[in-house]
Specification:
The complex is a heterotetramer, with one copy of chain A, one copy of chain B and two copies of chain C.
Chain A lengths: L9 E3 L3 H18 L3 E2 L6 E2 L1 H12 L1 H16 L13 H4 L3 H21 L5 H28 L2 H33 L7 E3 L3 H7 L3 H4 L4
Helix pairs in contact in A: 1-2, 1-3, 2-3, 2-5, 2-6, 2-7, 3-5, 5-6, 6-7
Chain B lengths: L12 H4 L2 H18 L3 H20 L5 H7 L3 H13 L3 H24 L2 H12 L9 H31 L6 H25 L4
Helix pairs in contact in B: 2-3, 2-6, 3-6, 5-6, 7-8, 8-9
Chain C lengths: L1 E10 L2 E11 L3 E6 L5 H8 L7 E6 L2 E2 L4 H7 E4 L12 H7 L8 H14 L15 H13 L5 E5 L7 H13 L3 E5 L11 E6 L2 E6 L1 H18 L10
Parallel strand pairs in C: 3-8, 3-9, 6-7, 7-8
Antiparallel strand pairs in C: 1-2, 1-4, 4-5, 9-10
Helix pairs in contact in C: 3-5
Bound molecules: adenosine-5'-triphosphate (2 copies), biotin and magnesium ion (2 copies).
One magnesium ion (MG) binds next to α1 of chain C.
Chain lengths: ~220, ~200, ~240, ~240
């Protein structure tokens, strides 16, 4: 079962630990979502986008995006996880529903950029990535969606960017700082089990992905 | 957290309909209203649908407080839409869009209030089945959803631990000190949970 | 029967198991040793949670490397921290989790879950949120959730930590009355009375293997020696 | 000196402390009792971490409700799970954290941190990631991080769980040699030898208050009674 150096190390699937990480970060988003919302105009300022940026910045694209989806699925199923004890299907249909979908795209973008651009997580890189994914991508979905209801893109853009931008920028800073500190204090190994080009090795490595990634 | 969520127990027709049927009905209603657009039919059907949905609340034992609470956060939006569309000279569109929103939110609320969270989660699991060829495993979908519900109180526990850790050293629980330990604590918990899952043959 | 042949394992470049060969057949086996001596790592190899870097572990003849699922079905595991072992929102759901793959009907599952809950004094709490149980109840739940899968061997890693005298006794009594074979890792030496065999680990090796009294004497001597040399018994750090 | 006057507290509608009045002046005080009897809740009131629903707690005359900071500066806390107490990435940073408000220069901080690390055998690990320490080392770090702030009283909630005999002895010896006053919560009754006073808690009340031997006898009788009535000693569940 020797591993030739030519075989690139890849990770495939999700281990039980990954499922637990997805669940725990979905729960973190729920905790950030519930407690408070500053009602500015129609869409509240909340800490939610902080959770949306943290999950992919710490867990990577796959697990990060899945944890956002998990949160949204539970909300959709009727748990009161949104600010003001809201939940169910109606938040998805309303004028702010686009932001909820935007979170998924945003998390995916942040995760992919973090994975591909940064070998070690750095604050400044993370901050820029959070702006691209956690603000750019989310608004890109959320603003046109609101515009659909308001009948005016400019107005929707103003309500989106104008009202949320200061808060979201602050959250991008916070998320990058927190993610950098977490990566330093307790790095999370990549998702999935390690596989090599060798088919047998793939099976063998299966059960024990954890021990394959020594921390340090 | 209440595992019943927003579900209101009852025995009405809506309560007894399967979750899938209700979701399908909701989808159909919203699609029809959107498609009818600004034609005259739309101007009649949209308020009719909104009224019907509103009437369905007391009829299903949900009272009238719940729909009103649903509509409350919508009001600023409705105001902006009405104002803006009227200013741009299309009061008919203002009327229709506002009522479409009201109808959709009320209909969605009917589904939410009359469907158990567990029934909805089962539905998601079934909906995930066709995705199996893409590597989605429905049993895992269900597992992660349940695991998340279980994990919500753990966030509070991790936060309490970090607060305690600050207090132990005579420091106030400043968020900038506690956030990272909270997240690290949750990652460590997740690792232990993953191991417990593997040990019980669920992975 | 669990066979280990020349099992070695390292985390990164830190060796934690060094060439361990054992046949575990006795009904009740204890494992003791200093912090970091490799007890938990050894225990994790028994059901394939850790597949050793070299050497083989066979459970009833099946290699845990090839077939970890078979090992996990036969070898149940209870960890010391009960709250991280609760995976589902309610007590009954948590116990039922281990039966997912057993291909039982809903009724059969319910019957089996209720039987296990009853045996461990948790039936009144079946629909209770599991995280609201008390410490002793959580540990019982962790035990019940594993026993419902009917493993042949139960591995318990310090299952009575943080429990008061009464709860610790209840868990201990439950463990002693199990028909299953038991592998118990503990720092509380009095729990090993009447055990058939006790292993003492040190530095990734089994340094003693025999009767409980002699094993605890060996362990105590080891600890005394460490105290004399005044080095802390932290055999390596978590890498 | 810590004074409690008619302290009562509930989590939700579950009472956990019921009318406790105490003057804690002795050098070494132990607290024992069943799981859920309220030991940790009581301990948390001593430094204002929990402000009771009714009654007052005064530390050196200052009410923890009015001035929780003063109480926290005087009363340090060490919990059983050391890893939850690590707040900073490396060992030295973690110890230095408690000195933030002391208004020391960087050099003074470093000197004090190093002195404490040296005293607790951690100086070689000063720049090591704190989460990667072994169990015994983490517990020592938790102790060091609190002691560096020089509290008058140290409250320890089961500080030797999960430690091996040697590490447990080292921690115990360290605790016994402290010049500070000590309040120790434990399920390990042998740690209470030579203590000046031991409280036994049950159901949110102090049901015995006296010498260690009598206290442990009282506690053991309580546990035996519970065993006889076969009810689990799970005094309420966590809400
Ligand atoms: N997942 C892991 N990654 C890296 N190192 C690890 C891991 N698990 C354990 N170790 C290290 O391996 C060594 C042996 O650990 P193990 O948990 O087997 O010891 P133990 O005998 O169970 O100790 P304790 O009495 O403290 O439970 C220790 O140095 C530990 O820090
Ligand atoms: N933060 C909390 N929220 C709600 N209930 C709590 C909380 N902390 C403790 N409790 C409950 O209060 C009661 C007393 O708990 P406490 O932790 O003081 O007991 P203890 O004597 O320290 O028990 P143990 O020996 O298990 O540590 C228990 O029923 C517990 O479940
Ligand atoms: O609660 C809802 O129904 C959705 C709220 C959406 C909030 C969006 S996310 C991006 C932007 N930043 C904020 O702080 N709030 C909005
Ligand atoms: Mg161990
Ligand atoms: Mg306690």
């Amino acid at each position: 079962m020797a591993e030739s150096p030519a075989q690139a190390v890849r990770y495939r699937g999700l281990t039980a630990r990954d499922l637990a990480l997805v669940a725990v970060f979905a729960a973190l988003l729920a905790a950030l979502s519930m407690p408070f919302a500053i009602p500015v105009g129609p869409v509240p300022i909340t800490l939610q986008t902080l959770g949306v940026m943290l999950a992919p910045a710490i867990l990577g694209a796959k697990r990060g995006t899945l944890s956002i989806l998990t949160f949204l699925a539970l909300t959709l199923a009727g748990l009161p996880l949104l600010p003001g004890g809201r939940g169910g299907i109606e938040p998805f249909l309303g004028p702010t529903g686009g932001y909820l979908l935007g979170w998924v795209v945003g998390a995916l973008v942040i995760g992919l950029l973090t994975q591909t651009l940064m070998r070690r997580y750095r604050f400044w890189g993370g901050f820029l990535i959070n702006i691209v994914g956690g603000i750019g991508a989310i608004y890109l979905v959320g603003v046109p969606w609101s515009a659909l209801y308001l009948g005016d893109t400019l107005l929707a853009g103003f309500i989106g960017a104008g009202v949320f931008l200061p808060g979201d920028l602050a959250k991008a800073v916070l998320a990058a700082a927190i993610a950098a500190a977490v990566h330093r204090a307790y790095p999370v190994p990549p998702a999935g089990r390690r596989v090599t080009g060798d088919r047998d090795a793939e099976n063998a490595a299966g059960p024990d992905a954890e021990s394959e990634h020594p921390r340090a | 957290m209440n595992v019943l969520g927003l579900f209101v127990p009852g025995r009405s027709v809506l309560h007894r309909l399967p979750a899938g049927a209700k979701l399908l009905g909701l989808l159909a209603l919203v699609t029809v209203l959107v498609v009818l657009d600004d034609h005259r039919a739309g101007l009649v059907a949209t308020p009719a649908a909104a009224l019907a949905c509103l009437a369905a609340y007391p009829a299903s034992g949900l009272g009238l407080r719940r729909p009103l609470r649903l509509l409350l956060p919508l009001l600023p939006f409705l105001a902006v839409i009405a104002l803006f569309q009227t200013l741009t000279g299309d009061p008919r569109a203002a009327f229709r869009v506002c009522l479409l929103l009201v109808a959709a939110v009320l209909a969605a609320g009917l589904v939410t209030f009359t469907t158990r969270v567990s029934a909805m989660l089962d539905l998601f699991e079934r909906l995930a089945r066709p995705l199996a060829p893409l590597g989605v495993r429905p049993d895992r979908v269900a597992l992660v959803l349940a695991l998340t519900v279980r994990s919500v109180p753990m966030v509070a526990a991790a936060w309490q631990e970090s607060r305690d850790a600050c207090a132990a050293r005579g420091l106030p629980a400043w968020p900038h000190l506690t956030v990272v330990p909270v997240i690290v604590g949750m990652i460590r918990t997740a690792e232990a949970m993953g191991e417990a899952m593997t040990a019980r043959g669920v992975d | 029967m669990i066979e280990l042949r020349d099992v070695s394992h390292a985390y990164g470049d830190r060796p934690v198991l060094r060439g361990i060969s054992l046949d575990l057949t006795e009904h009740r086996i204890g494992i003791i040793g200093a912090n970091g001596s490799g007890k938990s790592s050894l225990a994790r190899t028994l059901n394939g949670l850790v597949v050793p870097d070299s050497g083989t572990v066979r459970v009833d003849g099946r290699d845990t490397r090839r077939d970890p699922r078979a090992a996990r079905r036969r070898v149940g595991f209870v960890f010391s921290d009960a709250s991280t072992q609760i995976l589902m929102p309610t007590v009954a759901e948590d116990v039922a989790l281990g039966l997912r793959r057993a291909g039982l009907t809903a009724d059969e599952t319910r019957t089996r879950v209720d039987a296990v809950l009853d045996r461990h004094g948790l039936l009144d709490h079946r629909d209770h949120p599991a995280h609201l149980l008390s410490g002793g109840q959580k540990q019982m739940l962790a035990l019940a959730s594993v026993l419902v899968t009917k493993p042949d061997v139960l591995v318990c890693d310090e299952p009575t930590t943080l429990l008061d005298m009464h709860n610790a006794r209840v868990i201990e009594r439950t463990l002693r009355s199990l028909p299953q074979r038991l592998v118990l890792l503990t720092h509380q030496l009095d729990m090993l009375q009447g055990f058939d065999r006790v292993l003492v680990m040190d530095g990734g090796r089994v340094v003693f293997d025999g009767a409980p009294d002699e094993a605890t004497a060996h362990y105590t001597a080891l600890m005394d020696a460490r105290a004399a040399s005044m080095e802390p018994s932290n055999q390596g750090e978590r890498a």
